[in-house]
């Protein structure tokens, strides 16, 4: 699958769409997306909920890890939150660190509009032997 097909495939991620995440770029082993924080994303103390930030990071993790056209599913993630975000645009970028036939590892950075780090996530996927094409139209 080419990057355009991967981007089209992930437009079917209904949860990401519900949250308001917009996928911006896809490449081999990488992805970029954004989320505009609004009232629905805030927790009880008025900052972006960790789940909203995690959801943004998780989408680019999924896109980057599936960008090779092979089904990849997360088996482990670790996230650190560095700075509270109250409003504005958050950008997440995923980059592949290592890949082999069964496992791949990614680093995901979430930044605010000023480029300041909001969160850092590391994730590992299990790469199945199924083609992503097999899931189109399911």
From TrEMBL:
Keywords: Hydrolase. It comes from the Bacteria. Residues 46-117 form the Thioesterase domain. Signal peptide: none annotated. InterPro entries: Acyl-CoA_thioesterase_PaaI, HotDog_dom_sf, PAAI_dom, Thioestr_dom. One of its GO terms (molecular function) is acyl-CoA hydrolase activity. NCBIfam families: unchar_dom_1. This is Thioesterase superfamily protein. It comes from Allochromatium vinosum (strain ATCC 17899 / DSM 180 / NBRC 103801 / NCIMB 10441 / D). The lineage of its organism: Bacteria, Pseudomonadati, Pseudomonadota, Gammaproteobacteria, Chromatiales.
């Amino acid at each position: 699958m080419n990057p355009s097909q991967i981007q089209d495939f992930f437009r079917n991620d209904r949860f990401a769409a519900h949250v308001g995440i917009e996928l911006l770029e896809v490449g081999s082993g990488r992805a970029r997306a954004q989320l505009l924080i609004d009232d629905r994303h805030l927790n009880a103390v008025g900052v972006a909920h960790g789940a909203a930030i995690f959801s943004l990071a998780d989408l680019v993790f999924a896109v980057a890890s599936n960008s090779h056209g092979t089904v990849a599913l997360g088996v482990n993630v670790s996230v650190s939150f560095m700075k509270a975000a109250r409003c504005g645009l958050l950008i997440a970028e995923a980059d592949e660190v290592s890949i082999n036939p069964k496992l791949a590892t990614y680093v995901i950075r979430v930044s605010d509009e000023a480029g300041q780090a909001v969160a850092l996530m590391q994730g590992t996927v299990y790469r199945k032997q199924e083609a992503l094409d097999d899931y189109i139209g399911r």
